[in-house]
């Protein structure tokens, strides 16, 4: 019986990237989009499947420390490895049609897989060094992917903005890491935790933590590091928008969850340096409000989704904000709820962006008006989109309902009813703009010359699969919720 | 004569702020990149100084990682600047404003 | 042994069956319906009449009946609500009156509706059937709630029948007004019913059998306890405790609330305004509903629960005052009307005023008596008017008539009989009953109650007006020279019109003989049959409904006591006044070509023509106050309440459109804002955590 | 498993209809909707429950429990069951849906299969709302109801349908969120690790709070009560949270209006009854005067607004606001007649308002206008419709022996017997609604149905289609039956509200025993 290494999902993703490069080296000039997409999909599915298998087998019940503590495998890392890998699966399947006919197809898939590797490593990072390295591993391919359409001004502009803000943010983050190192003398999360209590350089440490949080805020598109997000999501190829707004965000949260709960125990840190719960509460409020309010008046569906993605980051931030010292059960609940939301969000948001990809494929247009009456031409995809929109808005057509309300409930339970109330206001507003999409595709009449070219198999498969997953998650939510809460338990149990 | 470690903090802070100032004032994408490099290196100052202060190698090793990643970042960045130039005929970051609001 | 009481439920149900037949057959197979539904209606009401008479005879034998028919709501841990039948002298008498008038009206309708070729006859007869059903059920109701329910159904039927000619603008409007005005009264009535149920836990008029109570009796006990005798029923005590009122005040409020319904239905001031308008309905309907029965429902209700009212002197005084005032008030308006049915309408209001006066002044028997006599003579007058209207091709203006006496003798003589009764001319029925009311009012008023005396005075004065307008009507219609072509050559009427007139004419002339109090006084004979009829032996379970009990309650609780005045002198006075009125009418109008003398009234005339502006102020209340208020509320609702809602949405969207402006597309600005945000956080948390 | 079967059958029917061709969708949907009708009637016949679902003493009908989701220590269970309060509402929902489907045959000519499918989806979720006994299960259905309604208004509605749909959608969703936060805050303060409603009710009754967020138990209860009250009040709707309703009604197609007025509004009062008034009777008692003021204002203000309207649908819409105010009054009275009457009135008003909307719809189908000023004297041309309209209007006015009277009477009896301060005065004031309702309905009838015929429309006024007439006649008969034999439902309703009454003795101390 062969023992698989605990990092198998990450390794699979990385290996697949290398295989893709290899294929390109062996056969550089042939058309092989299908082959590459298949290989990518097999790799990501395998990674997701192993993550699930490990979780089911109980591998996540303990912390498998790898490389002297630089990486760790536990339920959290497996959970997010699954999220990243499943989103990547949908994205590569959807990309098959989307990038058909583009150049550098194999680089595209490899970069997606490399970024996925980085994201899944983020969830496993247990040292600030690996945090940074994994984060950059996720970021650098993303920059390139966003500007993948080299002749498209929007894509290039998006890449530029994403890159510049990203570079600035990672500089801030590295500086923050250096300050943490300056005050604690170590970069291993567990060791930092030991040094934090009663630290004499509280101010410097606090500054470091704040800046470190900035790095995570960039990855999760939270205020004030969110500025890249609307443009990057709008300009990027739609599958990449899906990938970034779902997987990258989830990974950012994964690493934030681990770093803040492991390295900076709230009571100790709050005593000497900074009450990061308050910090995240403030960020959550500002982020969700800005995201939702800005989304409300957008004209383009994709940009609306971009802002809504910022809004959702705000909701998930509540999971960090509502953590309290010494309330293990409540913490596990709310953090677990955040994680479930990220998972469900992975499917519904990816699905939504892939629907946008589908519409871009049809070349219908980008504004709400352009979407008018799509349901008369493509009812199946539109049902799926409706599921995504209503699920994102928190209506019980998909798992988003449960995860969002569990998150709200967890926040309330932690005593942050005011935070949940603000989230509720935002959620109501979000219903308004999500239903604008639904209104456009179902209620408005199509323009006379609306006709759709073809039925792209890959995109359809991905969209429908995402929709099915979203709906199934409403009914079969139990395993997800249990796993997430369990992962949070393991995280707190160190 | 050992310089007190706090002064390295001040130095790094000064370099960091210089970098930030550059980021905020420069419009040329390359200058922007260089400013970011400054900020990264200010972190390196800290890492190396405190590595010495604590007597462990962690900081120094990490500073190597940072340099390597900075190089990778610049590589990607230059690629993006290149396509920026191709599409917008300039490397002024203020030109690319087709998407807003 | 099967007795009459086993069939009592069938009395109301027969007309209901007729209603169903007329409605269903009329809709699905109109050809199968003989005479547009008249025949089933006549058969059903005739059946009811027979059963009523049987019941009546059984009651004469001294056996009464109370029975729960159907428990509508079985209360769990609370009181139940049920339908039941109560047959006592009062209801037995009323059953006969209602079913008799109903039969006659059905027959008359053959002439008035069928022969005139009206359309929609099944609807008409269905309405009549439903009405008769509701009224009969109301009459036999053994509790106030059931009474209220059928009271309301009666109102519905009135609405449907007044608005029978719905294609014209007038009748629907009148129907609406009738329902609305009476609904206003019923609002108070319903509060009263609910209040009585809540206070007493029962709405029964009489308690027969074990473990049941009646609210008048509980009220009596409570008042007695308040006066220091016996114990307060626990339930009542608790309720009074909750609302913090004493029994007397609260019961008076309840009494007044129920009275609201009475005032509405019996068209008493100030809710009388619907009745003249209701003359838009077909004339037989006016006869049935707006004279003999539905309007009687109010007065009947007071009589029905007299055991309660007799406890409440304040309410009695108000009843008397309202009654007396209405009698006078309405009579004065009747003086100037030009249309036959209008005169009758105002006379109806006035006559019910008398009944209220009677009830208020303790003249229970007198009022009941007048209820009976009035039912006959007013039905007669309306049917007579209907006959005239047929003859006049539906022209109702008395100034176009004249001289019809020769052309239609049957109508004339029967109408005259009714008029004499109405005017109160001896020995016609109206004289006896009206006179007795005035007599009772006088003796109780003189027994140191100036309010009752004032009410009496108004009632007495009204006698003169009554005599005047009645004979003005008779003379203008039947005497003198014909004043129009139709009057010269009137349309003939058939047996189906004449028969009811004759029956009612005889009754109007004779029915007063059942209670000739002055004669009894004079001769010492025991001929006050109605009085004896309404007395229930103390041994009976139903004694609480008997006159003796009421008399006793009046004396004990209301403090009524009679002054010792003989019946002859007051009778003579009222007769003289009636004759005076009639005589004045003779002088002014019994000429070949009468002219209007209303000019002599001067400014009063305008007021009378406009009915004291009662309609105007009520219309003003509805259209000048309520409607603008509703519109203002609507504006407020659309502008402010909904405005806030839309405002919140607009403000949110506006805020959204502003917020997104931060994202101005310039990446250098993003970097600056990012840095700014970081610095703000840094400074804020630095200050908060004391880093500096 | 009967409840699950009922919901499943409805859902499957919805999918079947969705895939059916447009031509047969209406008939097919009606035929399939008879399955839930038959099912619910059969359940009604078999109904053997006693007591209240939220009380331990309650013995529920068709109850099932199954594990659904566990989140850490918290268990969300699939828990459904029926008691005397929910059973009548289930029957109401199925019956009204069937009739509403029939009433859609004429007006709905586009995208029919989608329309009927949505109707059945709505029924499925309504069944869930009225049967669920776990908060989350209930909440899933509660929120899902919005989705079909949004489409029904948005796609098949009138000229301003998009505005009305989104207003309905967002407004009621905001309310749900407020309610959600209030309720879960309350639950998490209790030592329960479940969202099971009976368990929560029992824990609240025991009153052991494990935390009160620094508010104190009483304050927490009050805050939670009013958060929930606000949430449900929007759905009811109570003034001043009512303005979505007229817009939604006026724009919605007739069948959707029927469902909206007939069943959806009842969700609000049902929830108030189940949550606020069953779980926090003490707070309801303490703030009875305030709630009663809301109720009275709704009744009178709603009726006044109806008086000012020209659109028949708007008239009925505002009168719904008025009628639902009575329900609140009944709830706050907190005795058998009050609570029972409130429940009964939900059913009665469901039938009658549904009937009114159908009548208006039938007229609109023919005349293509609903404005009072545009039509006159149409009784001549549409005799059956006019007759039913008159019957419906009188039913609405509370004509005895029709269902509305029974409901209102019970509520008035309850209100008058209530022991909170000025209960009698409030009741009397609210009762004035019966005069105003008569005012506006009589005015409307006089102008639309009666008088000389005229129609300011391009369409011929002809008698209603037979199926339209049949639907409204059936409803009238139901209304009459329920008014004549209220025990059909009222017995089980009383049975279910009695435990509530017992839980708050001070509210009802003096109304015990049989007939007094």
Structure description:
The complex is a heterotetramer of chains A (494), B (101), C (692) and D (516). Chain A has 20 helices and 2 strands. With 494 residues, chain A is mainly alpha-helical. Chain A has one domain. The radius of gyration of chain A is 21 Å and the shape is globular. Chain B has one domain: Helix Hairpins (Orthogonal Bundle). Chain B contains 3 helices and no strands. The radius of gyration of chain B is 17 Å and the shape is elongated. Chain C has 692 residues and is mainly α. Chain C has helices at residues 4-7, 10-28, 38-60, 89-114, 121-140, 144-162, 170-200, 215-226, 234-243, 247-265, 274-277, 283-292, 294-304, 306-309, 313-334, 340-360, 364-391, 404-407, 409-423, 429-446, 450-478, 485-488, 495-510, 517-523, 529-534, 547-556, 568-589, 603-609, 614-659, 667-689; strands at 65-73, 81-87. Chain C is globular. Chains C and D meet through strand 1, helix 6, helix 7, helix 9 and helix 29 of C and helix 7, helix 13, helix 16, helix 17 and helix 18 of D.
Sequence-ordered SSE layout with sheet pairings:
The complex is a heterotetramer of chains A (494), B (101), C (692) and D (516).
Chain A: H1 8-26, H2 33-57, E1 64-66, E2 71-73, H3 75-98, H4 105-124, H5 128-146, H6 153-184, H7 189-196, H8 202-220, H9 228-235, H10 238-263, H11 266-272, H12 276-296, H13 301-321, H14 328-362, H15 374-377, H16 379-393, H17 399-413, H18 417-443, H19 457-475, H20 478-492
Helix pairs in contact in A: 1-2, 1-4, 2-3, 2-4, 3-4, 3-10, 3-14, 3-19, 3-20, 4-5, 4-10, 5-6, 5-10, 6-7, 6-8, 6-9, 8-10, 9-10, 9-13, 10-13, 10-14, 12-13, 12-18, 13-14, 13-17, 13-18, 14-16, 14-17, 14-19, 14-20, 16-18, 16-19, 17-18, 17-19
Chain B: H1 5-25, H2 29-54, H3 58-88
Chain D: H1 2-19, H2 22-46, E1 61-71, E2 74-82, H3 86-104, H4 112-131, H5 135-144, H6 146-156, H7 161-188, H8 197-206, H9 217-235, H10 244-251, H11 254-279, H12 281-286, H13 288-307, H14 312-333, H15 336-367, E3 375-376, H16 383-396, H17 403-417, H18 423-431, H19 433-448, E4 454-455, H20 466-484, H21 487-503, H22 505-508
Short description:
Chain A has 20 helices and two strands. With 494 residues, chain A is mainly α.
Question: Mean pLDDT score of chain C, rounded?
Answer: 87
Give the % helix of chain D.
Answer: over 70%
What about the largest sheet of chain D?
Answer: 2 strands, antiparallel
Q: Number of helical segments of chain D?
A: 22
**Regions with little confidence, pLDDT below 50 for 5+ residues of chain C:** none
- Overall residue-averaged pLDDT value of chain D: 90
Number of strands of chain C: 2
Q: Which structural class should the secondary elements of chain C be placed in?
A: mainly alpha
For the largest sheet of chain D, list the strands in their spatial order: 1-2
